[in-house]
Amino acid sequence: MPRTKVLPALETRETTAREPRWSVVVDNDPVNTMEYVTACFVKVLQVARPEAHRLMLEVHEEGRSVVWSGARERAEGLAQELQRWHLRAHLESDA
């Protein structure tokens, strides 16, 4: 009877690559008023007025603000919606 060779067990490792987070960034512009930008943030980002006002001030004073971070698909949707409201919005990856 032929002998059967038993091979040593192979060590396997599974790694799960994390998807990079995407940030929605709004840049300052000379066209939209502070009140309008605040109202857009309340409507599109679904944040409370004080948070929308804080984000608007950051855009105004710093020239830009990261208004949302998370999954790419949601970030793309928010950026497009903010652009429809005539805000300068774009995506940045943390990768």
Structure notes:
The protein is α+β, with helices and mostly antiparallel strands and 95 residues long. It has a domain at 33-93. The chain has 3 helices and 3 strands, in the order βααβαβ. It has helices at 34-45, 49-62, 72-84; strands spanning 22-27, 64-70, 88-93. It has a 3-stranded antiparallel beta sheet with strand order 2-1-3. Helix 1 packs across helix 2.
Q: Gyration radius, to the nearest Å?
A: 23 Å
Report the span from N to C terminus.
58 Å
**Discrete helix count:** 3
Gross morphology is rod-shaped
Instruction: Give the spatial strand order of the biggest sheet.
Output: 2-1-3
Q: Which consecutive residue ranges, at least 5 long each, have pLDDT under 50?
A: none
Mean pLDDT: 92
Strand content: 15-25%
Helix/sheet category: alpha+beta
The count of strands amounts to 3
Helical content band: 40-55%
- Biggest beta-sheet profile: 3 strands, antiparallel
N-to-C order of helices and strands: EHHEHE
List the helices and strands and how they pair.
Layout: E1 22-27, H1 34-45, H2 49-62, E2 64-70, H3 72-84, E3 88-93
Antiparallel strand pairs: 1-2, 1-3
